[in-house]
Amino acid sequence: MSQESLDGWFDGEDGESDDTDAPADGNGGTGEFPRRCLSFTVRGPWGHFRRVEGNIVKQTYRIIPRTTVAGLLAAVLGIGRDEYYGLFAPDTSAVAIEPVRELRTLNMPMNTLSTANESMQSLNSRGKLSMKLPDPTKPRQQHNYEVLVEPAYRIDVALADDARYRELRSHLEAGTSHYVPSLGLSEHLAQLDYHGEFAIEPRTNDDTVSVDSAVPNAVDSVIPEPETRCQVEESPAFMAADAGGRTTRSFTAYAYNPDTGPLSVRGISAATVDGRTVVFV
Amino acid sequence: MLSPDEFDDAYDDDELRSELPDSPIASLRDLQYLYGKLYTLATAGGGDYAPYLTPDAAGDLVDTDDSLIVVRVDLSGDEPQLADDEQGAIKVTRYSADLVSKVAHSKYPAARGIDHSVTHQAGRNSDPEKLARYAKERLTKWATDGVVQNAADDHEDGSLVNALADLGEDEDVPDTIEDAVTRALDGESATALLTVQVKTEPDGEYRWPGEVDVFQAAMRARKLSKLVSKGQATESAGDAVDIVTGEATRTVGTSEDPLNYYLGKQLEKFPGLDVDEAWRTHPLSEDAAVTVMNAEPFVEACTYRTFGAKVYSLPYFFGTPTPADARELYQLLYLAVDAEDDSRVTSIERAYQREDWTVDENRLRFYVSAVMPHQMSRYDVFGETLNALLQYPSAVAVAHAETQQTEAFRGSDDRSAAFPTVDWPVFGSNTGALLGEITSGWYFGQTFPEGDDDTDASADDPRIEALVNVLSGTPISVSLLLDAYVTRILDEASHDDVDGFPSLRVSSQFAQLCALASAEGNFLTADGEQASITESPSYELRIMDEPGPEALTTDGGFAGEQKLEAFIEGTPALNNDQRCGVFLLGTLVGAVGNYQEWHEDRSTTLVDQFPVKSITTSRIKKVTQDAIEKTLTYTRQEKTRQGRNYPGTKFDYIVDRLRDRVLNPDPDDWTLEKTDLRFYYALGVTYGMNDYSPSSDESTESTEEN
User: Fold this and answer.
1) ipTM score above 0.85
2) What span, in angstroms and rounded, lies between the C-alpha atoms of A232 and A230?
3) Most CB atoms within 10 A, among B35, B264, B269, B316?
4) Which of B597, B415, B408, B614 is nearest to B511 (CA)?
């Protein structure tokens, strides 16, 4: 894919850091900002973003993981699996996520098929392309999925790849997408409401800022306030393709207010987008 | 395990800082890693091999007779041989505390197979033959194990391992070992660890496994091999980023965690349904994986059972752990491990009870998870939060205790309390005890319906939901509470063992509702007409044993009327006319029922005639008519029978208010939820049944009768 020079993309003084694997750690973000971003709200009746610590249990992240946002936008753009990680890499993209509806979950028992080896059927097992599927004639087991109820997130996204950025903008403007967007699982369909394109204005280095978005990689900088609930969770942020498939290249710990509303954070590189204060990663 | 004081002495702040994670606790794995680190520091100490050792596994053998059987091997000559000095090939001794680190035991938890270390733990009271076999297997089985052999190949002292294996192949050696063990034990059974000592220099000492690096390296390799090959997986490892440390390194896919959230069996979550690819979705470095596994003793110590579910309640400090945090946390965990098995104290209570508390309570958090085990490897999490705070349940406990001191639950000289108060734990006003009731789940178990399956919780069990909500400060919806309350009331009405109206239950439910509404924080949420239920009631405090000014209120008015007026005014939920109407209807039914029972000696009263389940908007008018009719009947009866002269009718202070509320609007147009109506009806019945004048006997029941 084609990428523009980073000079036009970041407002920073020295261009971008050399570290391509991980985002700048610590106080959130690189301190440098792209000039503009696209802003939209993704929402749906249900969502489920499986936490990586569990496969027996099916718990969900509260904040849509950055990797899921990347996959969602790749679906809009019609890019295949394992082909979009570069587009959303740390030095070529910036994403801020703000929960805009109270984060609420409930337990939803679902009937699932066993994926134990003895319950799997091989299709075309001797052919060049073969695959295994759970045997649909087997009885179902009921498992409990933790699902988000009416999740909604305001997403601000900037891409260094100008062609892709424009393509994404026209999709969002027109309300179109190549694949059907969903919130985690394919059955949890998502709706995207486009708000427009906004300038990213870096905040001057205030001592304390009131941040509207979830705050990435700055848990220790959050100022606890008795009236404001502050929760934390760590989810995958960046992926990379390799010979065998894909691996997560870094995780991000988000601090967030489950009731929506801002968190006070000390000494962080924030930005103003559409009158809101957000932190990109 | 080191005591908290010993722990403080053993590690200075710099040493702790170097061992602790340098990123905030933001996931269950982070937390388990921290626990595992603390456990390792407290047991095996620091060093490269410490996380792999299990010094506590044979803790009960320490300083017992015949608890260590040592095969002594001389590797200093050309050929390996058993020791032939005066001590002989086998030494049976006491497993003393100073030998724990030298023996370097690494237990493999499964019943099958051999321990990771050359040191092996035999079963309890093994007979001499069995012990002799285990002793031989140090050479014939451990030293020849494929993983051990590979580790030896990569180690400069690998020849030591090979020498053990060679010695084991000598036909005479196993027999010699067997004879020597049997002789040394004098034919007795023993509970023991079995290990080897080797001498590598002609004039050197016999060294323990903990002093021989290659034995440790082989132990480590054996333990690590279990992280990549288990079940269907053969080699689930690859280069990725460790979830815990964030470092790019070799990661393993089939490691366990002490909560068993992640098992190799669930192919569904692996790329290509291939368990060998498990490391891609769940990458843990080898050291992190082992450290996470080491968290188990601490994790298990912080569990309790509620409604058939296993509840984990794991304390930690918000943010990146500091040495000071680690010391405080270690104290809490040590106390939990040290507690008696049958103690029902949850870790939240234990933290609350700490008198020498010096930490910022805003930073003390708990990972809470209610897990329902169906089978060993199939279970569900019913409720979970990484963000439980000590303040949340204690705020509810304080509010509940205060609620119990108000005039709603404490009577005056003139009049009973609005609701019955007896010495029933849910009515307790001891904040410490209440905290335990809240954190253990009992608080909701007493007011919510019991599970379908006896008392076991189900996936959508409101008891678990409410428990986790309170612990994490998440507001509970009022409609959930009212549904649960009414279901419990109806369950009890249809239960043969429960006699009469469950006024104690209703009273405790209402106390809970008041406590949640008035607790500092935000524990209730509601929309529309139920919003007023979330508002804090404003009942006066009534301190018993201290005659207060409130005793002077008798200015000729009727205490029962004043009490009702005060209660309605103090209850924001009763600002709603429909809710107040149905409450007053219940009050009248309760009061008339009470009268029927005590004055008329009737076994079936209005309370039985109009049970909670009969209350619907369409029946309210009918019930109201019948109840008012009864008051007229009894007024007339008293007049003719006792010649009493009433200014009005019996219970007119209720009836007059009821008329105002029920007629406008017409109940047919009422919009309240059915459970809302039914709960406040039940509350009214409880009020009416409990409304009496404690100071007067029957002849001077109240002013209305004079």
Assistant:
1) yes
2) 7
3) B35
4) B408
